């Protein structure tokens, strides 16, 4: 019995010694590691990995920030009054340049294209609506269709739109002026073009902004 106790005590002492030696080795290794290039290397490695993750996310964040800033940017320092000349519309297909006036009363439509005062100005996010007479400024608008370009120049810049859709609607159809999620230019005139009297329909070109140069 005594022999077994001595053997147990001896094993226990050896176990304590091993643990003590291991603790000393670990402490020594920790001190060595923190004062050598190994620590610097691993610290740099983890920083590098972190930077890679951040850099992978950065382009997306930058793009989102730019889009948000562009969306919220004020293109016009002031709003026009009815009757003001706010710019011009160039139709490459027809090689035709036409003046745009703010408002769609007969006074504006007699001088050129009218900009519906209840819509946003060209270049702004949402639906900018232009109208003109079929027997004056928009006499040849029927030759313009899907895929053609419309270029509007104002005090804010030059805005290029591409026609995405051509519609013929009833003259009472108010969907022409509804808000849009993107910068949109809607151009409207009476239809049919050769109709005698008050035309019952409207010829509509719906275009989306594809390029812009801000002044």
From TrEMBL:
<feature type="active site" description="Proton donor/acceptor">
    <location>
        <position position="133"/>
    </location>
</feature>
<dbReference type="InterPro" id="IPR005754">
    <property type="entry name" value="Sortase"/>
</dbReference>
<dbReference type="InterPro" id="IPR041999">
    <property type="entry name" value="Sortase_D_1"/>
</dbReference>
<dbReference type="Pfam" id="PF04203">
    <property type="entry name" value="Sortase"/>
</dbReference>
<feature type="active site" description="Acyl-thioester intermediate">
    <location>
        <position position="190"/>
    </location>
</feature>
<dbReference type="InterPro" id="IPR023365">
    <property type="entry name" value="Sortase_dom-sf"/>
</dbReference>
<protein>
    <submittedName>
        <fullName>Class D sortase</fullName>
    </submittedName>
</protein>
<dbReference type="InterPro" id="IPR053525">
    <property type="entry name" value="Sortase_D"/>
</dbReference>
<keyword id="KW-0378">Hydrolase</keyword>
<dbReference type="GO" id="GO:0016787">
    <property type="term" value="F:hydrolase activity"/>
</dbReference>
């Amino acid at each position: 019995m005594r022999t077994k106790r001595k053997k147990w005590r001896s094993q226990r002492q050896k176990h304590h010694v091993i643990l003590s030696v291991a603790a000393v080795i670990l402490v020594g290794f920790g001190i060595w590691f923190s004062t050598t290039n190994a620590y610097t290397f691993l610290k740099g490695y983890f920083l590098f990995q972190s930077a890679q993750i951040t850099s992978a996310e950065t382009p997306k964040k930058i793009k989102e920030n730019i889009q948000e800033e562009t969306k919220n940017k004020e293109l016009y320092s002031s709003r026009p009054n009815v009757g003001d000349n706010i710019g011009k519309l160039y139709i490459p297909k027809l090689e035709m340049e036409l003046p745009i006036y703010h408002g769609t009363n007969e006074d504006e439509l007699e001088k050129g294209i009218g900009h519906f005062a209840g819509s946003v100005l060209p270049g702004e996010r949402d639906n900018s609506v232009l109208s003109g007479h079929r027997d004056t400024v928009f006499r040849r608008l029927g030759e313009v269709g899907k895929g053609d370009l419309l270029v509007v120049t104002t005090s804010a810049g030059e805005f290029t739109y591409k026609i995405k859709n051509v519609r013929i609607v009833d003259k009472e159809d108010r969907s022409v002026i509804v808000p849009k999620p993107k910068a949109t230019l809607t151009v409207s005139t009476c239809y049919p073009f050769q109709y005698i009297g008050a035309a019952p329909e409207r010829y509509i070109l719906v275009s989306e902004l594809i390029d812009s140069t801000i002044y």
